[in-house]
Every structure is written in C-alpha cells, then in structure tokens.
Amino acid sequence: MGVNDSSKQYLEDFKIYLKSEKNFSDNTVRAYCGDIYTFLLWADNLNVDEIDAKKFGEYLYFIQKINYTKTTIARKIASIRAFYKFLFQEEIIENNPSDTLSAPKRPKSLPDFMSEDEVEYILRNVKIETPAGYRNRVIFELLWASGMRISELSGLNYENLNLEQNEIRVLGKGSKERIVLIPDKTKENLQNYINNVSDLIHKTKKTPQSPLFINYQGYRLQNQSIRKALNEVVSKIELPKKITPHVFRHSFATRLLENGADLRIVQELLGHASISNTQIYTHVSSARLKSVYDAAHPRA
Predict the structure, then answer these.
(1) Is position 68 annotated as part of the catalytic site?
(2) Domain end: 100, 134, 157, which one?
C-alpha cells in the first residue's frame, strides 16, 4: 500500500497551486493535501488517471463506514474534487470522474455568540495591571469591536493602522484586503498600548512592518497565545457557553444586524466572499428575537 511517485508529484504541484494561485492559508493547504494523500494511500498505488467513478464510490462507502461526521466527510470529498478539478484543468486527466462524487449535506448549526453584557463581563475580568494583561484586554476589545478573525488580528503590522480615521486595513482569506472600523474608545486603548505599554512588553524599534501585538521576546504574538490568554480569563468566570476568539466575531455580526445594519455592510466588514455566509446571522437574530418573545409575551 502506498502512493506512486507521479501522484506524489501531482499532489506537490497542487499544493503549490493552492498557495500561489488560490492564496489559501497554510492550515487549509495542509488539510486539503492531507485528505488527498489519505485517499491516494487508500487507492493503493493506482495512478490518478486510473481512478474512476466506481472507485470514488467505493471510497465514499469506506469513509462512511469509519463513522466520520458529515462535516469531515464533506471536507474530504471537497478536497478530492478540488484536486481532480486541478488535474483536469492541467490536462493531466482527460475527464473528471470526481464530478459524480457527492458529499452529504452538512448539518446547519447556528453560531455561538455573546450578548453585550457577556462581552463586557469578560473584558472587566481581564487583569490589566501587567503589560501583557493590558495587551490582552486590547486584543479582546478589538475582536469584539471589529469582527476580525484571530489570524487577521495577530497578523497586523503598524502599517495597517489608520487611527486618525478609526480604520484598520486587514488582510483576510485569500489575501483579500478590507477596511474594518473601530470606535473611539477602542482606538484610545489601542493608542495607549502602542505609546505606553508595548515597550514594557519588549522595547523595540517600531517600523511600518513591525508586528502590532508582540510577546515578551519581541516576536509576533501567535494565535495560540491569544487563545490561551482568553481561556485563562474565561475559566475563572462562569459563562454558560464555550468562548473562543471566533465567538467575538459572531457576536460582532449578530449585534450589528440586531441594531439594523444592512446585510451587505456586515458582509463587507466581515470579509465574506459570499453573502450566503453572512445570512446565517439573520437566523441567529431571528432565533434570539423569538426566544425574547416567548419569554416576555403573556400569550407566547
């Protein structure tokens, strides 16, 4: 059982394609290639052009027997279909047999979000007496105020800031740039971090290309460190839900829509390629509205 050399080379070419042309993140590229390599291992040394629709059907049956979740199966199939679409475009194969491979529908689930009071409760419980604590408080406040992804926030450099206009230029998925806005209070706290706190974490020359948020060694603060800092705060308080950095993003979007923001504006601020990705928050708002109605109306 193994993967032949030609298939390995095609997979390496696909990896380069995802990075250079599709601008996929390292994590996404790793997931795609891992799924494809597992499939090629299962195919047991067959060339990519020897795998037909029947073989794809057998593989689908195989992974369903393993009791993967529908989401995992859908991701694996999407990876394989993307690989074979690439092979067809590059004229490595004459037809694309993966077109017959259909993924199970992913279960639709509403995203978790926090109320404004819950966000403020978290922010109040961040110990800002230390430089790192103050930095973390600014980070959480930015996540809530801007709707940025954690990777977008950790990737910020000083050149991304236009604080005079309350703007931050963000590099999102697929290397697409967008502008997010922040309120005056968040801007003031961020400015204080830059002017007075960051040098207490590590004193270094600030250039336009310097990372905005740093650790005590002066290096860019990584996503894992932000998640760890948030977990430390949340573990000390009682909230009836799991809180992650992405929940701040969900909360940001839900809050805007609840207050009458246009769906297209929310789409732009979140950096969604398709408005269908943004529409789930309208379901969240509707669900919350119904729960409030059921609790408050005497005939509900």
Answers:
(1) no
(2) 100
- The b/e string for 180-207 (b: 16+ C-beta within 10 A; e otherwise) is bebeeebbebbeebbeebbeebeeeeee
Catalytic residue among 169, 173, 220, 227: 173
* End residue of a domain, out of 70, 100, 130: 100
Which of 135, 249, 250, 255 is labelled catalytic?
Answer: 249
Active site residue 281: yes
Per-residue tokens: 122: 């978290």
Q: Is the distance from CB of 181 to CB of 29 less than 8 angstroms?
A: no
End-to-end CA distance of the chain: 62
The per-residue pLDDT for range 167-179, each reduced to its tens digit, is 999 988 777 889 9
Q: At a CB cut-off of 8 Å and minimum separation 6, what does 87 contact?
A: 10, 14, 48, 93, 96
- Backbone phi, psi, residue 75, to 5°: -65, -40
Please indicate whether residue 137 is annotated as part of the active site. Answer: no
Closest CA to 252 of 122, 116, 139, 123: 116
C-alpha 21/C-alpha 96 separation (Å) is 21
Q: What is the pTM of this model?
A: 0.66
Active site residue 202: no
The domain in which residue 259 lies consists of: 116-296
Write out pLDDT tens, residues 74-120: 889 999 999 999 999 999 998 888 887 776 665 556 668 888 899 99
Choosing from 149, 187, 250, 255, the catalytic residue is 149
